Each structure stands twice: as C-alpha cells, then as structure tokens.
C-alpha cells in the first residue's frame, strides 16, 4: 500500500515538489550571497581603486555620502565635532600661532623704528616726494632674495622639483633634500609633540631657512637678507596651491611654477613721483616743531608723573593719614581722597610746604589711627600735658608719663585718669608736682606724731611738746601747700584701750579726737580744714592706746566745703 501511495503522490505533486526544491535552493543561495556582501563589497571597491575606477566610484557615492554626512551633522553634531577635532584643532592652533608671531614681529619692528632717525628720514622723504610712507618703508626695508626653493615629498623625502636663481652656483639638491628630511625627522622625534609639530625655520650661515609643511608636500626656501614676516604665509599659500594641483592631476604633474621666486620676493620698485613745491621747507620746519613740542610735552608728562609718585610717597609716610586714592586732573592739579585722624599731622600743610605749585582738591574723612606716634599725640592733646612731660607707649598699649605737672593734674591722673583711644593703661609713677618731696616728708612727719592721754581727755604734760611739733609741721605743710597749689585737710582720730563698756569707749574716742582738733585749730596761725573721724578702731598704735592722732589728705584747690573722699 505504501508503494502505491508514494506513486500516486509523485504523479499528483511531483511537479510542485520540484519547483519548491528549486525555490529553496535559490533562497539558500541568496542568503549566502547576503552574508558575503561586506567582504564582496570591500573587494569590489579595492578592485575599482586598483583599476583606476576610483573617480567613477567617487562620483557614484558622492551624493549619498554628502547626504549621509549632512544628516549625521544634524542628528549627532557632537560626534562629528569629536571626529574632526584632532584635525581642525592643530590646524587652528598653528594658524593662530603663526598670525600672533607675525603680529609680534611687526609690532616689535614698528616700535623699534617709530622714533628712529631712519624713520624720520623716511617720513621727510614722503613729504618731499608725495609717496605713501608704506611704499617708502617697503622700498628701503625689504631687501631680500629667495635663493633656492625645494619641493619635497613629505613621507619619503624625495626631491620633486627645485628652483634657484641663475646667478647662484649649483648645489647638490638631492643631498640638501635628504639633509632637510633627516633634520625634520629628528625634530619630529625628539622635540616636537604631535604629528603637526616640526621645524618651522632656521638660520643656515647667511641664509634664513623657511619651511612650509603640508599633508603630502613640503616646501623649503633659502632666503638671503631680511625677509618680511608674511613670507612664511606666502610659502604656505604656494604649498596649498601645489596640494590642490596634486589632487586634480596627480603627483607626477606637480611642479614649481617658473615665477615662484619672483612671486615670493615681490621686489617692485615704486616709481618716485617728485612733487617739489615751495612749501617743502615750511613742511620740514612744521614737522620739526611738532617733534620738539612732542618731546617737551613728553618730558613734562614724565616729570609730572614722577612728581605724583613723590607726592604719593610723602602722603603715605604721614602718621595719622591714610591715602585712599590720588587722581591727576591735569598737570599741576590733583584730587586726593583719604582718612585723617584729628591728632595726626595735617597733610594739606605738608603738601603746601613740599609741593607749593600743586593745586589740590581734598576729600577727607575722619578716623581713629592706631599709629603709636598718633596715639601719643592724641593722649597729649586730651590730657593737656606740659611740654616737659615725656611720654612713651609700650607694646602692651600702656602710656608711661614722666616729668613734673601741676598738683591738680597729678591728682586727676592719679585718681581718675581719662580714657584715651588707643591707650590701654596709664602709668603715672614717674610724675610729680612742685614740692612733692617736701609735702610727702611733712605729711609723714605729721602722721607719725601721737598725743597720749593719762586718762579721760586731759593730755599728759609731756605730750605738749608733741602737740607743738604737730602744729609746727602743719603750719609748714600749709605754707608749702600754697606754693604747690594744693589744699590740705586734717582728720583727727581718738583711741582707747580695750577694757570698759563699748559705748563709753566710743564716746571717749570721739571726745579725744574733738579735743585734738580744737587744740590744733586754736594754735594755727591760719584757718585749716579739720574734721573728726566717727569711725575709729580701739587700738591703732603698739603699746599704749590712750592717744589721739592726725591724718592729712591733700586735694586740689577748690570750693571751701569740698571734702576728700
């Protein structure tokens, strides 16, 4: 049965089965061809390039490649920038460096010759002949010649073409090309960084060697004389032209133009058209007058600038003055902004004495200076110290005073010294007043005298001598006080021993102090200010304590009812 079934299926489906097998085989062949498409396409492009079909292939792919690149720039500009940056970056840097180098060279040469005698002579020639100054300067300065020009293949160092002047002896051009290639390779390997680095120029004997580097070609020029700064740019332009010809016609058709040397030199004489007029001498005199006026003005401007610097230094050296700004308002006039301490030295008087011909507009604001000299001056002003008193400010801010002052000032400084900005402390141990030694001796003598009592308030007979001595010392002290400008005040004290009731002893001390005060007052030739102490200790002296004593206080002359604290 199975054999019959197979024959029947073959008869019915044999043709369709055969057709399906052919279709399957075609599909398999297509898949294999698509899998081998990258390798086949690369081989086809290589074959096209090797059989000089690159131009046709380039024309076929140019439109698609341009559209693809345009879409890639629109969709992924960052990736395109990163791809071309290694190429564009070095080219931009090289162009900028060459432009800046040429500009610096031209600027340096222009500054060197601006006021030179040669430049003045050229300007006089311009006025005399009517020729522009640039043409005259070009005719006199650009004396150079391109002696040899080499065209070298960059990769191999093979000499492609050479031009030289007819009046120059022949040289071994192949050896020179090889030498330049070797030097360039040495510089590239040892000194330069990156593929774009290389030798840009050198000095060979009396010649100046200029090089222009391209992707495939290198130009080398041996120049005699002083070439202009833009000769290197002209050499680069010629190199770019040769690269364009190479891309269009191939390397075999690239040669140096016959007029390349003349194009690089451009030594064209300017035909002088002399225009003699009767005003030549007048023009020369006018130019000379202008030059003299410019020199005088420059000298005066430099002098004024130096004077402003001197004024600035003088003001900076003044204690108590801080210079904020100084602006010139024309020669001989200044506007000065600063801070001035009232105790500092007045900068206006200093400037008038040192620079009397300068007009000044002052803008001053007050401030407190911490300069030691100003602090001492401020203290002398506030304390009204006499000229004989010396002052010294230490590092801690303490002001030491030494000398003789009136008693009222000495008393005020010793008791209640005023506050001075910048002074942290006041040391008055070195101060005294007239008669201070005598006054201190009399006060010490008075306070050492003790009037003893036998009992009650009757003084002992022997203490009458002490009382007379006490009164005599008080009278001497009062005379000295008048001479020294001070007023004395006496306070009497009474003393008792410990035994006895407290109230009785207190009354007894008070009566003894009052007795001593009345005894002194009755024996004094002049009135004296005496009061009685209401607060006295029981025992004041060693030994016997039944006594009375007087204490002296000195104050400045004042109202009669004034009492010391």
UniProtKB/TrEMBL annotation:
KW Transmembrane helix (keyword) present: yes
The entry's keywords: Membrane, Transmembrane, Transmembrane helix
Chain ranges passing through the membrane: 281-302
Source organism of the structure: Montanilutibacter psychrotolerans
Protein name: OmpA family protein
